[in-house]
Write a structure and sequence with these properties.
single chain, about 400 residues, mainly beta, Tachylectin-2, Chain A, five-stranded antiparallel beta sheet, about 5% helix, globular
């Protein structure tokens, strides 16, 4: 769950237990891998109200070869004037340090003025898509942007006595675009718990109570990849007794056909327990996942969460390897990894959301204020993964 009071976070907040380490690799998580990573020179974007989940994609555009997809609240809470709450925004750049954000009829804003930002994806009038869109994960392939995104909606239905009840529905949607601005969402979710409607969160007197003990839904925070001739999707979901755990789905058909998607790992069989906000890349023959799980001692700062690394040979069987300490508050950083070629050299970038460390006596502020990164040469990361297997 993201450390944010945005709509996507609040919908799960009431149901999550106190963060407790349940993964078999608890000891491995404490290994400090920070020295492998080179920090960026500072924020690549700032000045906004609360934006995060920075997914960076390289595209064949000589003038602006980089695109940035991120979400949240641009200038104030809940994005007044737009449907739902969280919305997805778009940036472009000549390099990774000078971003312009899509501003609708104004064109592109290069002044870091979030009041001009115009979202590219907002909620729709559907029971699974009326409140929030976020967590964009984008793959540019064959001239088309393919996005997996989190979606939240409210489903109103009557019980046996005819009383209308309101339930929260969480899922992963797909969307496609040829220009990165205008998007077409899939006709239905591409990943949703098969009991999400029947066993989901009921809103009672305007409040969201804890989820039922057997609730195993809330599919969110996708990480999308086209690999080995098919689409692969990692996501997190609520598993009783854990924080948020990582599930997995595949699509061997058309990306935008919801019926072509199959959830292969979820429920009682997660890929990794306590693995919130997963982001997966492939380097050489190794899959690497970054997340920001709980379970770290309080002396490490923040709320006991750290950017954490796991590796896998097949994307299914994972080993937690250790953690990275980015700058700022040691908490939910919402890491998003990209493999990018810069000046002829390939790097693995981990972009993360930054917020100031809380000073003693100050109230906790969930809002993220900057986007930053750490990076590692792809060859060095492959070598480390191979040698430490």
């Amino acid at each position: 769950m993201k450390a944010s009071a945005s709509v996507l976070a609040l919908l799960l907040a009431a149901a999550l237990p106190t963060a407790a380490e349940t993964n078999d690799s608890a000891e491995a998580r404490l290994r400090d891998l920070t020295s492998l990573w080179e920090p960026g020179p500072g924020p690549i974007l700032k000045g906004f109200h609360n934006l995060y989940n920075a997914c960076v994609v390289r595209v064949p555009d000589d003038a602006y070869p980089f695109r940035l997809f991120f979400f949240g609240y641009a200038a104030e809470d809940h994005n007044p004037g737009y449907p739902g709450g969280d919305a997805i925004y778009l940036g472009r750049a000549r390099d990774l340090h000078r971003w312009e954000i899509y501003a609708g009829e104004r064109g592109w804003d290069a002044t870091e003025d979030p009041r001009t930002y115009v979202p590219i994806i907002v909620g729709d009038r559907k029971p699974y898509d009326g409140m929030a869109n976020g967590d964009p994960s984008v793959v540019y392939r064959d001239g088309v942007y393919h996005m997996a995104l989190s979606s939240v909606g409210f489903d109103a239905r009557k019980d046996a006595e005819g009383v209308e009840r309101l339930y929260v529905v969480n899922c992963v949607l797909g969307a496609t675009s040829t220009d990165g601005v205008t998007w077409t969402k899939t006709a239905a979710p591409i990943a949703i718990w098969d009991q999400e409607y029947e066993r989901g969160y009921e809103i009672i007197d305007g409040e969201i109570p804890p989820a039922p003990d057997d609730f195993k839904g809330g599919y969110h925070r996708p990480s999308l990849m086209y690999d080995e001739g098919r689409w692969k999707l990692w996501f997190d979901y609520y598993l009783p007794g854990t924080f948020l755990s990582m599930g997995y789905a595949e699509c061997a058909g058309r990306f935008d056909d919801p019926d072509a998607w199959t959830v292969l790992h979820a429920g009682d069989a997660p890929l990794i327990r306590d693995w919130a906000n997963p982001s997966v890349v492939r380097v050489g023959d190794v899959y690497v996942s970054f997340a920001d799980p709980p379970g770290y001692p309080s002396e490490m700062g923040g709320d006991g969460r750290q950017t954490t690394v796991a590796t896998s040979r097949d994307g299914i069987a994972w080993r937690v390897r250790g953690h990275i300490r980015p700058d700022g508050a040691a908490s939910s950083h919402v890491p998003q990894a990209s493999v990018l070629e810069i000046d002829g050299e390939r790097w693995v970038y981990v972009f993360y959301a930054w917020k100031p460390a809380r000073l003693e006596g100050e109230p906790w502020d969930f809002r993220y204020k900057q986007i930053r990164y750490v990076r590692c040469r792809e060859a060095d990361l492959v070598r480390w993964a191979e040698q430490s297997e």
